[in-house]
């Protein structure tokens, strides 16, 4: 019994981590996926340089993948932050700084 109408995506923040971020969309396609998702890939900043956003968009486009999920900035999850909204005093500034960037990037990739 199969699930012919069920579709899957791959989380590029969890899988293919042996590769640099910009090579992961192509690896996903090579593994049979066209839909991908990401945690916020810039753990050090809620507002990465536009050139880095453009490079990720290009990697997604060049591979032929569709970004179907993108988390907002969460800080250094493996480190001290455990989520940008959990650090008293700076949480709202970092979160607010990220919302427009994340929404604009999501819109740019459809």
Automatic annotation (TrEMBL):
Keyword Isomerase found: yes
GO BP term, pick one: glyoxylate metabolic process
Record-linked InterPro entries: Sugar_Epim/Isomerase, Xyl_isomerase-like_sf, Xyl_isomerase-like_TIM-brl
Domain of life: Bacteria
Keyword Isomerase: yes
One term of GO molecular function: hydroxypyruvate isomerase activity
Domain Xylose isomerase-like TIM barrel residue range list: 26-110
Transmembrane segments: none
Sorted UniProt keywords: Isomerase
Pfam family, one: AP_endonuc_2
PANTHER family: HYDROXYPYRUVATE ISOMERASE-RELATED, ISOMERASE
Name of protein: Xylose isomerase-like TIM barrel
Native source organism of the sequence: Streptomyces atratus
Lineage: Bacteria, Bacillati, Actinomycetota, Actinomycetes, Kitasatosporales
């Amino acid at each position: 019994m199969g699930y012919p109408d069920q579709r899957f995506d791959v989380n590029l923040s969890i899988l293919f981590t042996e590769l640099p971020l910009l090579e992961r969309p192509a690896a996903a396609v090579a593994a049979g996926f066209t839909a991908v998702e990401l945690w916020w890939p810039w753990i050090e900043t809620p507002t990465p340089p536009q050139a880095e956003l453009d490079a990720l968009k290009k990697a997604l486009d060049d591979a032929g993948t569709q970004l179907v999920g993108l988390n907002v900035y969460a800080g250094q999850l493996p480190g001290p932050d455990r989520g940008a909204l959990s650090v008293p005093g700076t949480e709202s500034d970092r979160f607010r700084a990220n919302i427009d960037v994340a929404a604009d990037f999501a819109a740019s990739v459809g």
